[in-house]
Design a protein that fits this description.
heterodimer, A: mainly alpha, two-stranded antiparallel ribbon, 9 helices, 6 strands, B: 4 helices
């Protein structure tokens, strides 16, 4: 673990903060690259990107109310604390949900035909992988549950090994990024389908990774993050069934 | 009701009103929360929660009524978030760390260390950020 990556004249450079910044820049760079490749006008890209960023940042914090419990509301619903750099952003799952909502609302507001969100799918996967490295180096939430597996890691001050859960997440994200980049031009993966596929894949894998993490269990042995993933997968399943029914009815 | 813009000047006025208005109104609101907190902590918490909800709701309403004002609000919101993330390099140690009331989750707050060098670095970051934001804002405003 290396929560402080290095110091510059006594000023600590935190792994979590630095990798979070790199993750945001990765997402921004890839979305702009993808927007240019798809020849989207900047009048559409700028508001959608801004809304997704703000929506993601706000919902990452608000989702803590669900994941960590209502007792956190004085801090979560503190407006000034949204901009306190000492407090981390919150949950990536809430961030993904908020970015999706923000981007969707902006798309509707500017009257964009189709969905601009496919550009976000590979970017979010790679950005998440980068961010997870910072989470691993910071040893967030004790990384994972105790394990005897050979790749278990030891946290400072502990005498047992734990699952390096953020690295499982990062490894999947890199593989998922490669797959999404391969599928991005596929005719069936346009108009929002690539993002839905990307989010569904992440939710499915995250559901299982949660079993080796230390997050708060809410009900029937499942964490808030797992319940969120199940709700997301259920919602996408309903959407897919309704779409199939519409296609059959049209045919 | 969606507002129909007459020309680029009106769009720019709305954009700058949204951008500057967001900072001005939130600064006043945060000041009000501070004043209320001296008399009633629960009142201040409630007011702050209301402020969060208003900051979510108002840009959404503006997006469907006066979209260039909404764009200004979003840019103001995003620029402050961006500054927070950049400052986080020097102070963010974990996912979500409560800073008061003993609700620390996942670690301890790292921002307790504030030395002279850190203040200088913070000022330099702020100056660089303001300069960068100025050019971004100018470019967006001219493209409206």
């Amino acid at each position: 673990m290396r929560p402080v990556l290095f110091s510059v004249d006594g000023v600590p450079i935190y792994a979590y903060g630095l990798f979070f910044l790199l993750a945001i820049l990765t997402v921004l760079g890839l979305v702009l690259y993808e927007a240019r490749r798809r020849k989207w006008p900047k009048e559409e890209v700028v508001p959608i990107l801004l809304a997704a960023f703000v929506g993601g940042m706000v919902c990452a914090r608000l989702s803590i109310l669900f994941f960590n419990g209502w007792q956190t509301w004085p801090e979560v619903l503190n407006f000034a604390a949204l901009f306190d750099p000492r407090i981390g952003p919150g949950s990536i799952l809430g961030g993904i949900g908020g970015a999706y909502l923000g981007g969707y609302i902006a798309s509707r507001a500017i009257g964009k035909d189709g969905c601009a969100c496919d550009a976000f799918a590979p970017a979010m996967a790679l950005g998440n992988a980068v961010g997870r490295i910072g989470i691993f180096l910071a040893g967030v939430d004790g990384l994972g549950k105790p394990t005897n597996l050979p790749w278990g890691v030891q946290l400072p001050g502990d005498n047992y090994l734990v699952h390096p859960a953020p690295l499982y997440d990062a490894a999947f994200d890199v593989a998922w990024f490669c797959l999404l980049m391969t599928l991005r031009n596929h005719p069936a993966m346009q108009n929002g389908n690539l993002l839905k596929f990307g989010v569904a894949g992440y939710a499915a894998v995250r559901f299982f990774i949660e079993f080796v993490r230390n997050n708060r269990v809410i009900v029937v042995g499942l964490t808030g993050q797992q319940l969120f993933c199940l709700a997301l997968l259920g919602g996408l399943g309903v959407w897919y069934l309704l779409r199939q029914r519409r296609v059959i009815a049209t045919a | 009701m969606r507002h129909i813009y007459g020309g680029p000047h009106e769009k720019r006025v709305d954009f700058w009103l949204g951008f500057a208005g967001w900072f001005a109104l939130n600064l006043a609101a945060v000041g009000a929360v501070f004043l209320v907190s001296m008399r009633s902590n629960s009142g201040a918490l409630g007011l702050s929660a209301l402020l969060v909800l208003l900051n979510v709701g108002i840009p959404i309403v503006l997006a469907f009524t006066r979209r260039y004002a909404a764009l200004g609000v979003l840019l103001a919101f995003a620029s402050l978030f961006a500054l927070t993330i950049v400052e986080g390099i020097f102070s963010t140690v974990s996912d979500f760390v409560g800073f008061a009331g003993g609700l620390a989750i996942g670690g301890t707050a790292g921002g307790n260390f504030i030395g002279g060098t850190l203040i200088v670095v913070g000022i330099l970051v702020l100056i660089g950020f303001v300069l960068g934001a100025f050019f971004v804002l100018r470019r967006i405003s001219r493209s409206l």
